[in-house]
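User: Assemble these into one structure.

Assistant: Restating your components, then the assembled model:
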Amino acid sequence: MSRMLRARKGTVRALLPTRARFIVHPNKPPTRCYNFELPIAAGVGRGGESKVRDMPDASLNKKRPLWYNLSPFNLPLPGLVSILHRISGAALFFLLLWLLYLLDGSLASAERFEAIRQTIAHPLARLVLLGLLWAFLHHLCAGIRYLFLDIDKGVELAPARATSVVVLVVSLVLTAVLGWRLLW
Amino acid sequence: MNRIVVGAHYGLSGWLVQRVSAIVMALYTLAFVLAVAAAKPMDHAQWKALFSQGWMRFATLLFFVSLLLHAWVGMRDILMDYIKPTGWRLALQIVVVLVLVGAAGWAVEILWRT
């Protein structure tokens, strides 16, 4: 793997919300780092290089590639829910003014109501609205999950994974059902 | 971290505001879906009538105020995580606050003009 690609993957790691970083490695050494020759304590991972250089054994001096796989779809499920929670929240913020514009027009007058109805009949507008509907529902479902985590419900590994699946599935199903009812 | 503890809130109020506003918005969402399902507004007059009711106007106002606070905490967290230069972070936080306050004002205008 090229040096550049490795640097980019390091950036992806830094982009994860703090919560996700903890969930990736609850209390384990970096299991997603497939480096079989260096002991963990010798400095595998971030900031370890200087320690490695001080070791007497020449074979430990060699810089070896680290194989982090940090694409969002390779995250553990709670991590995926977490990063999607952040992305959906940001998307809702960025399109808030457009949604307000639609609400404003729909309530202003019968003519503008019809104009807004024409606007959201456009396939592109429907696609964006469907995306926003998913963003809202995912943010809502994942948010409810976090409220339970706040009061220490479902923090064990198995229920945390199970509720992550529930959040992902329920928000997609609700998007399909409500999207069908509202937009078509 | 060599932080001297001198009695600021260290994010507790933001955390609490985020949770309380989330609950308000979740309850509003439920109420809104039920109200729309009950009224089945099909044209402008019915849609407008839905938002002209006193309780709906009040609940929607609570929703938008919660949205303002909730989105502020969330966007602030995002900016603190990804934007490292202090000047940029401050500038973007100001933009976020202005957009959100403007949006809340616009929402009030939409609701009370109706």
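The CA atoms of residues 18 and 74 of chain B lie 8 Å apart.
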